[in-house]
Amino acid sequence: MEPSVVNPALLIIDMQQGMNQPTLGRRNNLGAEVQMQHLLNAWRHAGRPIVHIRHISRTHGSVFWPGQPGCEFQPALSPLPHEHVVEKNVPDAFAATGLERWLHTRAIRQLVIVGVITNNSVESTARSAGNLGFDVSVVADACYTFDQPDLSGRLWPAEDVHALSLSNLAMDYAKVVETEEILAQFTAG
Predict the structure, then answer these.
(1) Among the residues of 22-98, which ranges form H helices?
(2) Which of 134, 27, 116, 7 is nearest to 64 (CA)?
(3) DSSP code of 118?
(4) Is 4 part of a structural domain of the chain?
(5) Neighbouring C-alpha atoms within 13 Å toward the C-beta of 96
């Protein structure tokens, strides 16, 4: 995050109660929510724009099906009434949601992305943001994922899936940073 940029938006992706379902498997970054809370508090204190992104599934029976408790935001990361909420039906928060227009209307060119799942909605959204010309930072310790099987059936640990996803993003789409680096910008400027 460049100190001269005064209005970066914090995008919090899919921090819904359904992400706590044991059926999703083992995850990495058990402290990710605490890091997200630190960032959310800093953004709120500074009066910077915050976007809460919620996944609404098109698959009947999903924990993210409309009206299910899994769709609700986790209490510690719930939006305040004045904070923007985007609902999406696919991993990419820019796909058919109006998010790009909302950001452009407010002259927001810089995004700080946190949330879940690193190799799904976080990566998809960050790739689109980078392709659309936004200056994107993904906060590694404020994202997490789950163990993931590959097509041959090998189960990859969440730590490896997370690391590879962030490496993919760092090649062309985003800067990969830690919470501490972002919070330092609040005290520097």
Answers:
(1) 32-46
(2) 116
(3) I
(4) no
(5) 6
CA–CA gap between residue 70 and residue 15 (Å, rounded): 10
Residue with tokens 């099987």: 149
Residue 121 forms part of a structural domain: yes
Counting the structural domains of the chain, the total is 1
Q: What is the pLDDT of residues 45-74, one digit of tens each?
A: 999 999 999 999 988 888 898 888 999 999
Distance CA 9, CA 21 (A): 28
The answer to whether position 107 is within a domain reads yes
Decide if 2 is inside a domain.
no
CATH of the domain at 120: 3.40.50.850
Cβ proximity of 131 and 122 under 8 Å: no
The token duo for 184 is: 């330092």
Tokens found for residue 30: 């058990």
Please give the residue range of the domain that contains residue 94: 9-188
CA distances from 182 to 52, 140, 185, 187 (A): 18, 11, 5, 10
Classified as helix, coil or strand, 74 is: coil
- Least confident piece of the model among 3-17, 30-44, 161-175: 3-17
Please state, for a pLDDT cut of 90, what percent of the chain lies above it.
Answer: 87
Question: Dihedral (C-alpha) 122, 123, 125, 128: value to the nearest 10 degrees?
Answer: 170
